[in-house]
Amino acid sequence: MLIRLAAAGPAVQNALMHSSSRTDDLLRIRRVLESVAKMISGIGPSEVSVSYSPNGDPVTALDRAINHLLHESLPQGGEGWLSEESRDDLSRLHASRVWIVDPIDGTREYVEGLPTWCVSVALVEDGEAVAGGILNPSTREMFVGTVETGLEILGQVRVKQPSEDGSRSRMLVSRREHRDGKWDSFECSELTILPVGSIAYRLAQVASGYAEATCTFEPRSEWDVAAGVALVHAAGGRIRTLDGASIRFNQEIPKLQNFFAFGKDCPAFVPKMCGVTINP
Fold it and tell me: How confident is the model at residue 47 (pLDDT cuts 50, 70, 90)?
């Protein structure tokens, strides 16, 4: 199944002059994600070796294999590279175009056999996430998009059913934050809080309209969210920090202290409830 969603407004019209080159960027993303899907087809978590970092996070041989494939396929002359699984080369700071990737966002979910992990690929130009792709191999969903071309969803697409939670909006949050009770006070008659492990996958679901918002009050790395930011923008949504600022990527320290994403049709009460200022 293929679904196309398009953003709208002056920003899109101004960007159309780059549509030809952006289509080429999107094709590179789509092709590499198709290659990743082919490579890992039929490989289960029990077949992959797992080690643990000093802070207790799992790292798998599959993370490294996907990272190698992405690195061999994406960067071209003069383009920078930032990945969770690569040593940070600060020469990226002098590149106008930088690939920011997370070979597996949600490694813990992958190891536990949960279908909420994904592969995340973003292209950043001059600090802005301009193209993104997210692949969920478990559900066979692929989300790709740019502001110029809109959002495309390929595969088995999840559709929000009105009967599931009535007219309530959905906020997707991290499993850990949900388990720790950090979102208990936000649950109300108008808002359903749902835990989903991968923030990249949460962003893709907001872009697709399956949920109205996702956010985190905890620091995140740029590779966790860059592709999802591109997709939310491609679908006409908005990304903000707690103080209402927009997000800039390819920083020397690639960290975001907090992060909020609101879908195109997100009701105004949701950002207000989170304490986020959204300017018209």
Answer: confident
Strand spans (E) along 137-187: 141-146, 150-155, 169-173
Residue found under tokens 């592709």: 227
Cα angle value 153/157/158 (rounded, 5°): 130
CA 96 to mean position of chain CA atoms: 21
Question: Rounded to whole angstroms, what are the CA distances from 52 to 60, 158, 196?
Answer: 8, 32, 22
The radius of gyration computed from the CA coordinates of the chain, to the nearest angstrom, equals: 18
- Residue whose token pair is 């559709």: 159
Domains along the chain with CATH numbers: 2-155 (3.30.540.10), 162-274 (3.40.190.80)
The pair phi, psi for residue 55, each rounded to 5°, is: -90, 5
HEC string of 181-216?
A: CCCHHHCECCEEEEECCCHHHHHHHHHHCCCCEEEE
Could you give the CA distance from residue 145 to residue 19 in angstroms, rounded to a whole number?
Answer: 12
| CA geometry: angle 75, 81, 85, nearest 5 deg | 115
How many degrees, rounded to 5, is the angle at CA 246 between CA 94 and CA 256?
70
Q: Which amino acid is at 56?
A: G
Residue 131 tokens read as 């193209």
pLDDT one-digit tens code per residue, 149-186: 999 999 877 766 554 566 789 999 988 877 777 777 77
Amino acid letter, residue 126: D
Q: Which residue has the tokens 């949701």?
A: 270
Contact by Cβ (8 Å): 143, 158: no
Task: Say which DSSP state 98 is in.
Answer: E
